[in-house]
Specification:
The structure holds 2 protein chains of 2 kinds. By secondary structure, chain A is of the alpha+beta class. Helices cover 50% and strands 19% of the residues of chain A. In chain A, helix 2 packs antiparallel against helix 7 and helix 2 packs across helix 9. The two termini of chain A are 29 Å apart. By secondary structure, chain B is of the alpha+beta class. Chain B has 2 domains: 174 residues, no CATH class; 253 residues, no CATH class. In chain B, 49% of the residues lie in helices and 15% in strands. In chain B, a hairpin with an 8-residue loop joins strand 4 and strand 5. In chain B, helix 1 crosses helix 13, helix 2 runs antiparallel to helix 11 and helix 11 packs parallel to helix 14. The longest helix of chain B is centred in the C-terminal third of the chain and has 37 residues. Chain B is elongated and about 95 Å long. Classes of the chains: A alpha+beta, B alpha+beta. Chains A and B meet through helix 2, strand 12 and helix 7 of A and helix 2, strand 4 and helix 11 of B.
């Protein structure tokens, strides 16, 4: 530690180089902390469970090529025909397919007045069998019984009296104890709904919505000339089921089928923008680390070039190689620490700004610790090679020209 | 003289290849990062209708549910719908108070030529609109033109194709007068438009603004007369208990689904038109509609883009991050320059001793930093192009034009590299010019 005083004195004497390095490290630290935080948040978002049996699902949109009076009969016939296929386990129709960003969201209230707002929720209104088709897990209460399920052609606002919610939504409805949610009544647009069951997970249709664990399901399917189908194939028979269902439906004259995709495709497309921005965040972080290390490396070399003679004299006066290396390691640590200190301040300021912009949480304390450790270690990696070469300068050559 | 300094700069770079490469590489990376984000931001925030974006405005009427607001704006205030009900849209169209009106919606249907087999039909989204769409939004035609006024009124079955579809269906020949099947109906081609992609695609919703334009256009009235309706792909919002499962229901309902844009010959007419809108909603209030307090809006293109947040916070943040990144890179270059010029103490001393003034030294190294900036900028431009093509590949949901640099940005890139390189070189150059000849010559 007795090196510390001369180090500080030397740094003070020629301030520009170290000052630039401090700024670089501060900028790097600020970005590293905030980008790292965002990248990890994105990572969690992308890997959220959907609650669906994704591997065996495929979805599509198809029209009902009949007059409006016959929509219900046609749809029920389509269901029956599809179910007859040996490769198909279950089928249903829905108002919106998860992760396709196309659907309805509604505000839930505790009473008739919208003053008692609870939360926004993604809305699914589906035909019967959806628990089986989607592979949902009912963890509390019951699923809808067949008498509750309705196919109706005059409905947009959902005219049921019951609903099921996801666990994440139940936690919003009953913040003290979500298991108490079953049996409670919530209001949407002034209309009451009784909650009869809770499913563990069912992701809302918007991949980019941070609240997309909160979904509500109604036992109603609105009939129009088009329907969105979800089909669950028997394990290992997805490909076969997709071919068979397509052939079957196309037998009907006037049939239009669109967006015929396995669910893996839907997930991939839905999350593509987020995955892309995650890749960019990671690239920025890596680029920044590389540039900072280059900066530290250049700075250390500069310091050594300038102090060749000084090192030679110290060596001639009996300093060991280790003492020389130690000097540079310590010097780098001092500069890096100043940089980190400045960086911490900037990072906090930036984080506050970002929290205003996005619904981001504040960066947890351990990010600062990890960030500081990473920068310190990276700085050492950059400084050790030139320090070692400095220590290898022979005293004789370094002091020759004095 | 300039040539001599450039030669000196070149020799100096050759002398310390590693250091030079580091400097150039660092500038190139920093510039590339900054320019990639700036390009995306700049292209996203362009004025999509130059010369008349302040004369073209979107009509937002507050016809929504009296019991609750349509939604909330990002500032927390109540929002009103940005689309209209059929009855309001038709009433405003009939009143004809603006100089041009464009009303639009969309549907999807199977499209094929009359000579091809039914199984070759493809499902396409189709823009249903009025004849002024093309003129108001500056859509260029290759063949033919928009449909007649009568077609708008009578719902004549006519269609405008994009160049892409004309190439696919008719091998690119002039197809005006030929017919295509739209579902079971026959539509006559009246025009073919050239490639056209406004960036942003300002006239629609935010989440659709960077996607490709549609490839088929038909009169809105032809959609309505034939009850063509695609509820799973067309956006519409409803309140109340009106039925809305068919197009006929939708026309009578309070659901909002039609975009209305108006154009004025001069900016002054905008206020008059807003007055007309207020009168209209006042009249409607008397018959029990328009009970909400929030005022109507008449938003010009820039105002609408601002409201929809066309340039998202993420883009703005990306630009700031990359500028900070550039700053870090430049600090790095600055300390490398300090190293470099320090190593040249002997040369400086010698030049000074044989008669060079401080000014000469400053010019010499000034040239060197600009030279470094130039090479770094050109290299950065290359990196940025690579980065943008990687981005275009990753964000295939966005239109390519967002990821393309125009000539202004390219020149700007190199200019930014050179000027920042010089700016951050100023201090090292000043320091170098302060070197005393005597102190350096001693040790030579």
């Amino acid at each position: 530690m007795k090196d510390l005083t001369p180090i500080l004195k030397t740094l003070w004497k020629s301030k520009t180089g170290p000052f630039l390095l401090v700024i670089q490290i501060a900028v790097a630290f600020t970005i590293l902390i905030n980008v790292g935080h965002m990248a990890i948040n994105k990572w969690h978002e992308i890997n959220k469970p959907s609650g669906l049996d994704e591997a065996h699902l495929f979805t599509f949109t198809a029209n009902l090529p009949v007059e409006p009076d016959s929509y219900q009969a046609r749809l029920e016939q389509d269901f029956a025909d599809i179910l007859e296929l040996a490769s198909v386990e279950s089928v249903n129709a829905t108002n919106s397919v998860p992760l396709t960003s196309w659907g309805l969201g509604l505000a839930l209230n505790r009473t008739e007045s919208d003053e008692s707002y609870i939360s926004y929720a993604g809305v699914y209104s589906m035909s019967s069998n959806f628990v089986e088709t989607l592979g949902l897990e009912v963890i509390m209460g019951r699923k809808f019984d067949d008498a509750e399920m309705r196919l109706s052609s005059d409905d947009y606002m959902i005219k049921s009296t019951t609903a099921m919610v996801t666990k994440a939504l139940a936690e919003k409805i009953s913040p003290e104890d979500w298991t108490q949610t079953v049996g409670k009544t919530i209001y949407i647009n002034g209309r009451p709904y009784q909650i009869v069951g809770i499913v563990n997970e069912l992701i809302a249709t918007w991949p980019a919505w941070w609240g997309n664990k909160r979904s509500i399901i109604f036992p109603v399917l609105t009939l129009t000339n088009e329907s969105k189908f979800m089909v669950r194939a028997h394990p290992g028979q997805l490909q076969q089921a997709m071919e068979e269902v397509h052939t079957l439906l196309m037998r009907q004259p006037g049939r239009i089928i669109d967006k015929y995709h396995p669910f893996s495709h839907t997930r991939e497309t839905g999350y593509k923008p987020m995955i892309s921005s995650l890749v960019i965040l990671i690239a920025v972080t890596i680029g920044l680390m590389v540039v900072t290390m280059l900066g530290t490396f250049g700075q250390a070399r500069f310091a050594i070039l300038r102090r060749k003679r000084q090192i030679g004299i110290r060596r001639a006066l009996g300093a060991s190689k280790w003492q020389i290396v130690r000097y540079y390691i310590l010097e780098n640590m001092v500069i890096t620490s100043f940089g980190i200190l400045l960086g911490v301040i900037c990072a906090i300021l930036l984080n506050v700004k970002l929290m205003d912009f996005f619904d981001l949480l504040s960066v947890p304390g351990e990010y600062f610790l990890v960030g500081a450790a990473v920068i310190l270690v990276a700085g050492q990696f950059a400084v050790i090679p030139p320090a070692l070469s400095a220590a290898n300068i022979s005293p004789a050559s370094a002091t020759r020209s004095v | 003289m300039v040539g001599y300094y450039i030669k000196l700069a070149w020799l100096s770079l050759r002398k310390t290849p590693l250091l030079s490469m580091l400097m150039i590489g660092t500038i190139a990376i920093g510039i590339a990062a900054a320019m990639i984000t700036i390009t995306v931001g700049y292209m996203m925030a362009q004025d999509p209708l130059p010369h008349k974006s302040d004369r073209v405005a979107m009509v937002h009427l507050n016809s929504w549910d009296p019991t609750q607001p349509y939604g909330y704006r990002r500032n927390g205030k109540n929002d009103i719908p940005s689309t209209l009900t059929y009855q309001d849209a038709m009433a405003l169209l009939k009143a004809d108070k603006a100089d041009k009106h464009t009303l639009f919606a969309q549907f999807s249907d199977m499209i094929r030529t009359t000579t091809s087999d039914v199984r070759d039909a493809q499902l396409h989204p189709i823009r249903s609109t009025t004849r002024d769409f093309f003129d108001m939004f500056g859509v260029p035609f290759i063949y033919g033109g928009t449909w007649s006024k009568e077609a708008d009124l009578t719902g004549e079955q006519v269609i405008v194709l994009s160049k892409h579809e004309n190439d696919r269906l008719f091998d690119g020949v002039n197809s005006v007068g030929k017919e295509v099947h739209v579902g079971t109906l026959l539509f006559r081609v009246v025009g073919v438009i050239d490639d056209w992609q406004p960036t942003p695609r300002f006239y629609t919703h935010r989440y659709l603004m960077y996607q490709s334009t549609l490839r088929y256009f038909v009169p809105l009235e032809s959609q309505i007369r034939n009850a063509l309706f695609s509820p799973t792909s067309m956006g519409f919002s409803c309140w109340g208990d009106d039925p809305n499962s068919t197009l006929a229901d939708l026309l009578l309902s309070e659901c909002v689904w039609l975009h209305l844009w108006v154009e004025f010959d001069s900016v002054d007419k905008k206020d008059d038109y807003f007055g007309f809108l207020s009168d209209y909603s006042e009249e409607q209030r008397k018959v029990g509609r328009f009970a909400r307090p929030e005022p109507n809006r008449l938003m010009t293109v820039p105002e609408y883009l601002e409201k929809e947040g066309a340039l998202s916070n993420e883009n703005i943040m990306g630009i700031w991050f990359s500028l900070a990144f550039l700053l870090a890179c430049l600090c790095n270059v600055m300390s490398l320059m300090m190293t470099k010029f320090h190593g040249k103490g002997g040369e400086i001393g010698l030049r000074r001793a044989v008669g060079a003034s401080k000014k000469d030294i400053i010019i010499q190294f000034g040239f060197e930093s600009i030279f470094i900036g130039l090479v770094g900028g050109v290299l950065g431009l290359l990196f940025a192009q690579v980065g943008l093509s990687v981005l275009a590949d990753m964000f295939s949901n966005l239109h390519q034009s967002v990821m393309t640099m125009d000539i202004f940005l390219m020149v700007g890139t190199v200019g930014l590299a050179m000027s920042t390189s010089l700016l951050f070189g100023l201090w090292p150059i000043y320091r170098a010019s302060q070197i005393q000849p005597s102190s350096q010559l001693k040790s030579l």
